[in-house]
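Re: beginner question about structure tokens

> Can someone show what the tokenized structure looks like for a real chain? I only ever see the sequence side.

Sure, here's an example I had lying around. Input first:
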Amino acid sequence: MRRHGGPRSWSLPAALVGCAAALGLTALVTGDGSLGAVIDTRPGVLSLIEVAGFALAAVAVVVHRRAWAVVPLAAVVLAEALRARGPRPPLARAAGHEGPSRRP
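And the corresponding structure tokens:
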């Protein structure tokens, strides 16, 4: 709660700006303008998780349960880390093995 004369919390504005930024990222991922492009791709799903995480954090702040915002914000951090990492190559390819060779 805010006390008279005390500093104002940045929690709600930060959550709203984060939600807007995640929506912008989702718009970039959409590409062709269809919702299917977002749902069917890994970066699209991860950007939707970020939007939901920031939105839930904003709701937690509005209902005066700031501690509840930790879980959705942790989901945002995880989704951003997975999105920034890019697609994961198969384990065999990462180890440098392409599998059994075919001989004619």
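Each token stands for a local structural state, so reading them left to right follows the chain. The mean pLDDT is 80.
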